[in-house]
Amino acid sequence: MLGSPRQEGKVAGSGSETKESNRLIHETSTYLLQHAYNPVDWYPWGEEALEKARAENKPILLSIGYAACHWCHVMEHESFEDESTASLMNELFVNIKVDREERTDLDEIYMKAVQLMTGHGGWPMTVFLTPGLEPFFAGTYFPPQDRHGMPSFKKVIAGVARAWKEKPEEVLGSASEITEHLRAFEELGLEAGDGSGVEYDIIEQSLARLVKIFDPTWGGFGGAPKFPHSFCIDLALRSSLPDRPLAEGTRRQLREIVTTTLDKMAEGGIQDHLGGGFARYSVDRQWLVPHFEKMLYDNALLCQIYLRASRVVDRPCWRRVAAAIIDFAEGELGTGEGAFYSSLDADSEGEEGKFYVFGRQEIIDLLGEDDGAWVAAIYGVTETGNFEHGKSVLHLKKPLSDEERDRLEPLSKRLLDERAGRIRPGRDEKVLTSWNSLMISALVEAYLVLRERRYLEAGKRTACFILDNLLEDGKLLRTWGRGKARLSGYLDDYAYLIEALLDLASVDGDPVWYENARYLLEYMLEHFPDRENGGFFYTADDHEELVVRPRSHFDGSVPSGSSVAARCLLRMARLEGKDSYHETTASILSLYAPVARRSPDQFANMLCVMDSYLQRPREIALVYDSREKGSKRHEDFLFALNSSYRPDDVVLLFDCASPRPHPSPLLQGKIASGGKPTVYICSDFTCAEPIDDIDRLMKVVSENEVSND
Fold first, then answer.
1. CA 100 distance to own-chain centroid
2. How many Å apart are CA 507 and CA 651, to the nearest integer?
3. Torsion of CA 258, 261, 264, 268, to 10 degrees
4. What pLDDT, on the 0 to 100 scale, is given for residue 684?
5. CA distances from residue 345 to 135, 287, 427 in whole angstroms, order as listed
């Protein structure tokens, strides 16, 4: 038991008003705590609620959302804070509230049920379950009164309760049928293989599909609403490299996808031009008006793609965009302990976007007539506005010259200072292992491209936070909040962290990163595989039993756990020299090849892994001794190795000053020659002559030719 189900307490932000809290008051999730004073008798997902449903033969009303979700807040205010609605819910159902970002396994399962039953999905998600957890009716947002063809929430819950009472056999039969569809959906008709069907024509066909759905005017893919689709951009970027077997015309088309999309997003209102960072998506085709929530994962992924692209196309503005993303993440999502919180809400003072928008006269009053009118013109702020109440979302009407940028910078800082005095959007103060791992990888990329050591140190601090706080008794945990870690890690937590640690091992010579990556990889291989059908489950083999055991198939707003796991295995196969890792990668790729061919936009990250699998990457070791004079010289070698974008190479660093040896076979027998940083460039574990001279290394890199012994 979680203790007394209701207790007296103060409502956050309500002054002296007091209400009774429900069971959610004991949770660590910001989203659940937002509902802790609803009159609904909410339970968190757990045995107490599930046993109550079984014992009383009551259906479950499962409500899933997240803290930055605008319509989740709307439905809470309209229905969950309404006493009469709550009374009906408490009488007729066992009510369970779930944070989708904590319990992504439940969200994965029941979102598919919503899509099966309604043809669409979204949050807030409302699903009615049997006591056996099988779904039988579902939807998303329901209004308090009948509206726009949608029934009221009260009408929905009354109808569902009546069907449960009067036609239980029909309800159970329908629930059973839907559950069978869910099981089939998890399998996707996949068949494991040995990699023999993985050929470059799959990538070529997928690229043709991306070119077809590309918006040549505004960048991105499709129409409104428009999402960044980082993995599609990444696939186009790597496929545009000169060593890919594509026609020159195709390469130019792919390069256009990258440059147009990144330029137009950077100019649009989806980027916060004052505080840095990107909103979740644009409600229009032009990237102008965003849905204002700002998520850690979006910004980590976009930071990486802007930096990678800047190694292929020299756009200083892309590097500035990436640096501003990190400034935003550290300034507005940083925990102060090295980790990052999850998101910022779209709303402030009950209005979406109010924190971010400006009126033209407001800017003139702040900056004066001349500067104010000029800044308003630069940012596209007009008298009528492009948003609600005559306000405007700041965006760039055109690329800025250096002179314009120099003039704009101090004036933008004054706007930012003014904005800082407004009531801020809410912040979801939970730390997720997976999303923080994405941010580590972004910080490593920033270190390599922007060449500032502070980014590496920030990435190491985040990794240490996870290893110190979210790895308990050899198992990775999902979430940390209010000083407490909880919930077993999912496939994406393991896979993203393994990749982040390998990224750190590629720029820092402490063996701790590699040692932890190797341990977590072996744990993942032990507890997550589908040994019958191939690939991975989303949950470990010791996870609680759910109505189905979910998989992680699709690359959506975040990469699928399956695609990142495959990339980690591919990297470790080169670093460990293990055929079994390579064979498992081949099996995963052959599993997904047929569906990736049909839907490249849903498997773009898996296609990136497939692209690397079909290349012949190099293994590169950089060995140095930090005790030697001028010990930071190894950074010159590291930056030279990474001056161009070679996404298939695997790199490993080792500092000879470490008190313990490095466990990777790639580093066996390799020394810092004469105490100097030394580079070993190898292919299939056959290495060229060591290089300990930076000028020679830069020549080799520029020629991109190494003769093996």
1. 13
2. 8
3. -130
4. 79
5. 30, 19, 6
514 vs 29: CA distance, rounded Å: 31
For the chain, how long is the longest CA-to-CA vector?
84
Q: Is 617 exposed, middle or buried (0-12, 13-18, 19+ CB in 10 A)?
A: middle
pLDDT of residue 189: 62
Tokens 């959506």 belong to which residue?
Answer: 556
Structure-block tokens of residue 413: 């800082």
Up-side HSE of residue 331: CA atoms within 13 Å toward CB?
A: 12
Strand partners, 587: none
The pairing of strands 650-655 and 678-683 is unpaired
d(CA 705, CA 685): 16
Q: Which two tokens stand for residue 51?
A: 């046993």
Q: Which of 148, 179, 250, 237 is nearest to 208 (CA)?
A: 250
CA dist list (Å): 536 to 243, 464, 490, 596: 32, 27, 11, 17
Length of the chain in terms of residues written: 709
- From residue 266, alpha-carbon distances to 277, 322, 324, 409 in Å are 10, 10, 11, 16
Q: Which residue type occupies 34?
A: Q
Contacts of 49 (CB under 8 A, 6+ apart): 43, 60, 94, 96
SS3 state of residue 262: helix
Cβ–Cβ under 8 Å, residues 92 and 128? no
Q: Residue 463 corresponds to which tokens in the numbers above?
A: 């990794």
Contact 645, 312 (CB under 8 A): yes
Instruction: Evaluate whether 487 touches 472 at the Cβ level (below 8 Å).
Output: no
How far apart (Å, rounded) are the C-alpha atoms in residues 365 and 369?
Answer: 7
Tokens read off for 585: 């990668």
CA angle, corner 536, sides to 534 and 541, nearest 5? Answer: 110
Start-to-end CA span in the chain (Å): 67
Integer angstrom CA distances of residue 476 from 435, 523, 613: 14, 10, 28
- By the 8 A CB rule, do 277 and 256 touch? no
Where the chain has pLDDT below 70, the residues are: 1-18, 188-196, 629-632, 704-709
Q: What is the pLDDT of residue 632?
A: 67
pTM (two decimals)? 0.94
Measured CA to CA in angstroms, residue 619 lies from 205, 647, 663, 683, 692 at distances of: 29, 12, 15, 6, 17
Which residue in the block uniquely carries the two structure tokens 């809410």? Answer: 426
CA–CA distance, 283 with 222 (Å, rounded to integer)? 12
Task: Extract the tokens encoding 493.
Answer: 């937590």
| Nearest-angstrom CA–CA distance, 293 and 65 | 14
Interatomic CA distance for residues 551 and 100, integer angstroms: 16
Q: Write down the H helix ranges in 506-603.
A: 512-527, 561-576, 579-598
- β-strands 290-291, 281-282 pairing: antiparallel
